[in-house]
Structure formats: structure tokens, C-alpha cells
Design brief:
The protein has 12 helices and 31 strands. With 558 residues, the protein is of the alpha+beta class.
Length: 558
Amino acid sequence: MAVCYLEVDDEITTAIGRLRAVSDGEAIVVVPAGSRIATSRINFKLLAREGLERRMNIAAVSEDPQVRALAISAGLPAYDSIRTAEQALATFRDQDRRLAERIRPTMPREHPEASLRDVGLTRVMPAQAASAPSERGVPPDTAVMPTGTAGRSARRARPRRRGRAAPILVVVLLGLLVIGVGYGAYVFLPTASITVRPVAVPIQVPPFTVTADPDVAVVDTLNGVIPAQSLTVPVHVSGTFPATGIQSHDIRAAGSVRFKSENTLNAVPIPADTVVATADGVEFATQADVTIAKASFATGPTQVDVAVKAVKGGTAGNVDAGTVTVVPADLAPQLISVTNPDAMTGGKHVETQVVSQDDYDGAVATLTTNLQSALATALADPASVPRGLVVYPATAELGAAQPDQDGTTLVGVNEATFALALDASARVVAVNESPITDVAQARLRSVLKPGQKLVSDVSATNDGGSVVGQTVVYSVNASGLGYVDPDPQAILAAVRGKSPANARAALAQFGQADLSVWPDFIDHLPDQSARISITIVAPSPLPTAPPATLPSSGPAAT
């Protein structure tokens, strides 16, 4: 008996090649789960046909119930372990021996040593039995085909005694056919298929905490720590503010004065900025250098006009004509006098509105106050936070704000209003809360009993999280469903030989069970374990609602 272990990526040609290298007439083909051969029923048909042509007893072995069912449906006996397959092949061998002993007395006397294999009897799977579902495998029927040594001898002897041999051969063939049909009914009838879904029981752990920490990079299910992220959120505020500063200045009055000289000795120079005044002290300064020619007794006094401006600005310089009469003390002895032919005009006091330092500082203070509300608005904007994260505004920390205009350039600007903006960035903690379920699943697995399994879906709820410094601490409740796979041998012991009704009642202790028998008119299940296939499937998870959270210190989900 040879055992052929196949690899996952072996093709059917490789498997057939391994069978052709077997010389003792019995082979076990071990097919792993996920094998390429197990992707098509035709591959198992080819293996069964190879055994038929080579007159070999072949059995398939696989841990996957679906692989076994596919092999059996193709007419190839299949089992869940090599030991079971070896027992089945030993049974086949014993059945072949007993059947050969029954057939041997009907063989011609010149071939008394002929065996079942010598006369060409080959084990094949009937169509009906091949379609019956089974995990443990179903032994094949026996069909009789005279292709062996005795058959050839019989054909060689036929010409010498055609008249007597033909009826005997027909009788022998009919007898073998009846034996084969009877053996097939013995092997294949009845069969039963059982699917058991174990009972799932609720599993719950005491409430526990999970901490989201920005300084952690990976999930720590043992200590209940998950990563958090520190996001940078830009914040912008702006506004228009009134300018309340006053800038004032005086404009000097202007006009001209006329100097007159009665000095007949020499000309008198009058330099620029010579100050003349009214009797009440309003002073005016000349704007250019002039010289007064000397007077003569023949022609009389000389005179010269020169432009002047008030020394001080404002309306005080607006004086009437003829009021500027006071000359400097150095000019009076030289017989120089002065007057203004026309009034002095243009002197005034002017005030303009400008941006003051107080205006600028007040605008910066107002915008700084508005940064907090602008930050709250930014955190509530989905565009500011990556999808799938929950931000916690209580962890937000604003950086220094930068105005878009410096005070030195804005203060003193002659405007009634001015615009100013502040830009800052804030750091805030955001959490992807999905790893909380991973921690909850690990906690549930830690309380499983030996042999107990966890249904895939776990229900985990949290209180929404509380901010502790720059971390977020969640109080979590977790629950799930657990189950234990029943022992297949216990299931077999509970149902073998019983009526379908009693078998269904006995299966209730193992969970939800489906039982089907073939043919459906039989009144009891078979005693042979090879005729009963058992499939155990995991319980389906219960429908779960979205994780419930309670309001906390202000997280915002996006």
C-alpha cells in the first residue's frame, strides 16, 4: 500500500504519474486543502478512471470536508485520515478476497488458482453513490468485467467447445452481475449526511479601559493602548477696524512785505530769514535775500518787496494789511522801515484721522480672542480632519499668531479704517477608534475556556473617551459569542443505527443539526461510520448594531 502526498500546486498529471509508479495495487492519495486538484470534479474522475484502468484500489484523504465531498461525488472513496483510509482499503482487500472465493468455483477447472483480480473484476463507483454527499468516504461497488487471465483462457478455449461453453459463460456473467449489484447495495446503502452548527453562548468581560496615546505607534492589546495622532490644524481670523488716531499740524500764513530805505549813504542788504513783526508780536521771516538801494535827495527813498511767511503756523499769522511794521534792531538805525501792502493769509490749523498704535494693538487683541472660536469652527469642518478620525478639541493647543501687517508699517497711515488678519496653527489629538475592537477581541479570547472558540464578530461599546492630558481614555464594554466544536465520534455514537427521528432528537444536544439520509425511504441510519458523513460549521454571528458611545468632553467625528 503506497501513500502519495500531493502538494498544493501539483497538477493532475503529477498525481496520475505518482499512481502509475505504484506497483502493489493499492494507493492512498493525500490531497491538501486548497489543492489545485480539488478545484475541479473532473480531476477526481481522472484519478478514479486511472484506478479502474490499472485495477487498483485508490482512496483519497483530505482534512477539508468539501474536498472529500468532491472526490466522493466523482466516484473516488475519500476519508479524513490516512488511518481511516488504510482501514477502508483493508476492508476492500478482504471483500475482494471473499468475493474471489465465491467466484473461483465457477471458473474453468484449468484455472483454479485465478483470483478476483485475475478474472478482471474491477472496483468502480456507481453514478448514484458518487453523487451522495459524504465526508468519511463511501466504499465503491463491485462490477464484474471478464478481462483477466481466466477470461483470455476462456476465449482461447471457446472455439474447441463453442456449444457447451457459451451457456455456462452467460450464467457465470449473470451470477457475477448479481453479486456485484448486491455488493454495491451492501457498500452504498444506506448513507447519512449530518451538518451540525454548535450552540453559541454569550461571553462578556468586565469593563476595561483603552488609552489612545499620540506617543504610541502600534496597538498593544495586552495593556489596552492604541495609537493616537497629533494633527496640525491651520487657523485664520481677519477683520476691519476703525482708525481713531488724530494727526494735527499748522499751516503758516504767507504774503509779502515792502522795505523802504531813507539811507542816502549806502545800499542796505537784507538777508533771507530776516524777521519782521506786527506791533503785537506776530513774526514773519523773509524768504529771499534782497538789497535796498541807497536813497537820494533828488529822487527820494528807495524800496523793495520780498516774500515772507509766518514764523509760526496757524491762524495767528493771518494779519491785515499795514500791520507788519517792526523791523529788526540792526535795520532801524540804517533808516529802514517795513510794511505789508496786503493782508497775510493762508494760516490755519489742520487735523487728519490716522491709524494709531492703540488702534493696531486693539485689533491684534480682538483677533487673538477670536482665534479660539475659529479653531472650534475649523475642527468641525470635515476638510480639516482626515476621514475616519475623531478629534478631541479639549486637547487643542494654539501656537503663536502672526499678523499679516507689521505695526511699524500700519501705524500713522492716513485712513479712516484698516484691515488686519492673524494666522496661527493648532495641535490637536485625533483617534481612529477601530482598534478598540481589536483590544476587545483580545480580552474576550483571554477568557475563553479550553477548546472554546470565538465567533468572528465582537460587540464593543465605549463611553466616547475622556481627555487626560494629551491622551484619550475610553471605558469599554465588550461581548461576543463562544462555542465548542462537538466531538465527531460522540455524534456518531449518538446516531448510528437509530431512526431518523431519534437521530434528530439525539443531535439536539450538539446544537442546530441537519440530517439527510439516502435513500430517503430507509428507516434507520447505518451502523458503519464510513457511511455517515459529519460536517461541523461555526455558528453565524448575531447581527450587530453600530458601536454605541456616550457624550464625553467634546470629541468631533468626521
